[in-house]
Design a protein that fits this description.
6 helices, Imm41 family immunity protein, mainly alpha, 68% helix, single chain
Amino acid sequence: MNKEEAKKIIEDNAATENESFLDFIHERWTFNEVAFWKYYNSIKLLAFELRNEESLSRDLTYKIIKSNQYYLLLIGCHFDKNDLFEIKNLPDNYTQFSERLRIAIDAFLTGSPINDETEELLDND
């Protein structure tokens, strides 16, 4: 994956379209792990590629934050007893997926990409 492909994946998630992670959750009520990894790896790659930038694109930053906020909202709706929304295939360890996204977004915002040691800790958690 290159930087442009990563940006497209972020755009698709922010718009909940094109079989993106959020398209699956929002439109199909399904947690798609393959789409999750594309989304996560896109943020991770952009954190690395843009690490030396003095300033980040507001548009790109907004799309990353927006898509993560929407993901968190949908997780909340899933657990709301008064809401009919239910995410199929939600992994038992969904909080680990959420934590991984949080770390990737932090890496993007701070310009401190995820290193191999952190990735290994996440994998073993």
